Each structure stands twice: as structure tokens, then as C-alpha cells.
């Protein structure tokens, strides 16, 4: 039987990326993304709700996200869901579901450059990662 584990979300970062490195030197970044959903409630009023997701990016993609993204920036995330379980030091069991990013795409020009980098350098960095701009979003 075939299986599919693919997620697309568009939202805003709720905090700056958290970059760290594995003992072997591989970069890994955690991103927190808020995705808003608006619907009409039973009373006819519009209701807004937010869902919050943890996204994990690896390698060069993690480094670029850490360099160029900041809290509040809109992003498109493509990836897969992964569930993890662990036990805390005091014996409590914990679990989480997170998105492992295969693509992190910046959705605004301001998010694609820092104060020190030119727009041209940022575009070159993004192209090296296979990341385009907002015009590449398929919907």
C-alpha cells in the first residue's frame, strides 16, 4: 500500500529561529510558525483561530533560515510530519509532532535579506538552495 506524508503551511514566525549544531557539526534550526484560520461560527460571527507548529530545518537550509528570517516574517514550509517521544529527567513521558522541513521559502523580500546582505546576494543564496520567491508558490 502506498503512503504519503507531506505538509504545506504558510504562516508567520512567532520567534527568531533557534540554531544549534549536532555533535558532528550539522546545523539544525527550530522555527515556530503560527497559521491563522478564519471561519464563520454558528452565530454568524467570524472566528479567528491560530495553530502553532514547530518546524525543524537541517543543514544549509537551517543556517540560511537563521541568517535571514526573524520573528513576524511570513514563510511557506513544505515538509513531512514526524512524531517523537522521550522521557524527561524527572521520569515524565513527553511527545510532540513536528514538521521536518524539506523547503523553507521566504514570502517577502524583507525576509530575504539582512541589514548586512544585499538583495542580490540573498537571491544568490536562495537559488543555491533551490528556493525561489513568492512567484514560485503553486497556489
Describe this structure in words.
- The chain contains two helices and six strands.
- It has one domain (7-129): OB fold (Dihydrolipoamide Acetyltransferase, E2P).
- The protein is mostly beta strands.
- Helix content is 14%, strand content 47%.
- It has a five-stranded mixed beta barrel.
- β5 (74-87) and β6 (93-106) form a beta hairpin.
- The protein is globular.
- The chain has helices at 59-68, 119-128, and strands at 7-13, 18-21, 27-40, 46-58, 74-87, 93-106.
- The longest helix has 10 residues, at 59-68.
SSE map:
Blueprint: E1 7-13, E2 18-21, E3 27-40, E4 46-58, H1 59-68, E5 74-87, E6 93-106, H2 119-128
Structure described in brief:
The chain is mostly beta strands and 139 residues long. It is built from two helices and six strands. The chain has one domain: Nucleic acid-binding proteins (OB fold (Dihydrolipoamide Acetyltransferase, E2P), Beta Barrel).
Q: Look at the structure and give the CATH class.
A: Mainly Beta
Total tally of structural domains: 1
Strand order of the largest sheet: 1-3-4-6-5
Topology-level CATH name: OB fold (Dihydrolipoamide Acetyltransferase, E2P)
Shape: globular
Number of helices: 2
CATH homologous superfamily?
Answer: Nucleic acid-binding proteins
Terminal-residue CA separation = 29 Å
| CATH architectural type | Beta Barrel
Structural class: mainly beta
Number of strands: 6
* Major β-sheet annotation: 5 strands, mixed, barrel
